[in-house]
Specification:
Layout (H helix, E strand, L loop, with lengths): L11 H12 L7 H14 L6 E7 L5 H6 L5 E8 L2 H6 L4 E3 L12 E7 L8 H11 E12 L5 H15 L12 H10 L3 E14 L2 H10 L16 H15 L6 E13 L18 H5 L14
Parallel strand pairs: 1-2, 1-4, 2-3, 4-5
Antiparallel strand pairs: 5-7, 6-7
Length: about 300
């Protein structure tokens, strides 16, 4: 018998169910997606070119399209979402598609955008490779996904409450990628000029219980395959909320929740892109530029 697949971190079938449920009442819980879409499109505005055909991967309630508005930077925008309910909300061409199995031809798009979606992918390197494949040469990928420091306050409060009441721990908040790995993943996927950075969005809630309710209605609850399948004991949730309030209440009297957003930026390779010089091909010596002397490897340097 074989053990569980180590790549299956998230329950994608449950994710699809939650997406369908979230789509029914999305306008009341779309604030985080709207904020991330705004920041993503702001970064796109810094790119001095146009993209005739673009893909919005993980379109939700069409926030990326709304933020783009009538900007001429993007011609036609195709939406794709795992949830049929979200695909139906689109105000333009849309498909129901799994991010882990993209149903698009190679070299199809000039631009792929993805806001608040890729953190639920089991094989992120594989999905990035697929995104690179569907981009035309010199096409751009610009993504924003939740990072590893997301909801660190909730992790801490739940861990403390469960340890105190149940005497042990179980996966309560889904693990996400770290910034230090993001640029490397882009490079491994074949992107040229990869760049990754992060921003933190701080949100205030009336209580930790209000935060947990909002996460559930956004479809962003725990999806870890190894999560505890029984309903969390009320005592654990109430104690976690109590600890959260004690540790993370701000001057406003409300609790704070942090969402780390990783921004990924990479180009499909093209001959016109700048490339690093080969070792030894520099026209000037670094020592001359610095006004100092050059010593060969192994040669002792006298201290003055």
């Amino acid at each position: 018998m074989t053990g569980p697949d180590p790549l299956l971190v998230f329950d994608r079938a449950l994710l699809r169910q939650r997406r369908e449920r979230a789509a029914r009442d999305w306008e009341r819980h779309d604030f985080l997606k709207r904020e991330i879409a705004d920041r993503l499109v702001d970064r796109l505005a810094d790119v001095r070119r146009t993209f005739p055909l673009a893909l919005d991967l993980g379109s939700h309630g069409d926030e990326v399209a709304t933020t783009l508005g009538g900007r001429p930077i993007v011609g036609q925008l195709v939406r794709a979402d795992l949830g049929r309910g979200f695909a139906r909300r689109a105000r333009g061409p849309a498909v129901v598609a799994d991010e882990e199995f993209l149903p698009f031809a190679a070299a199809r798009f000039d631009l792929v955008l993805s806001a608040m979606d890729l953190h639920w992918v089991n094989d992120l390197p594989g999905t990035l490779i697929q995104i690179a494949r569907i981009l035309k040469p010199d096409g751009l990928f610009l993504g924003a996904m939740l990072g590893g420091a997301t909801l660190w306050q909730l992790r801490q409060a739940l861990a403390a409450a469960e340890s105190e009441i149940d005497g042990g721990l179980s996966p309560r908040v889904s693990p996400f990628a770290d910034l230090r790995d993001a640029a490397g993943l882009l490079q491994r996927a074949g992107f040229a000029l990869p760049v990754a950075d992060s921003e933190t969005i701080e949100v205030e809630y009336e209580s930790a219980l209000a935060l947990m309710r909002d996460l559930s209605r956004m479809g962003e609850g725990n999806l870890v395959v190894g999560r505890r399948r029984t309903v969390t004991r009320r005592a654990v949730l109430l104690r976690a909320a109590e600890l959260y309030g004690e540790r993370f209440t701000g001057p406003s009297g409300r609790v704070s929740a942090s969402f780390e957003v990783l921004f990924l930026h990479g180009w499909a390779p093209h001959a016109s892109q700048p490339k690093a010089l080969k070792p030894g091909s520099a026209a000037r010596r670094l020592a001359d530029a610095l006004g100092t002397s050059e010593f060969s490897a192994g040669e002792k340097v006298e201290r003055s």
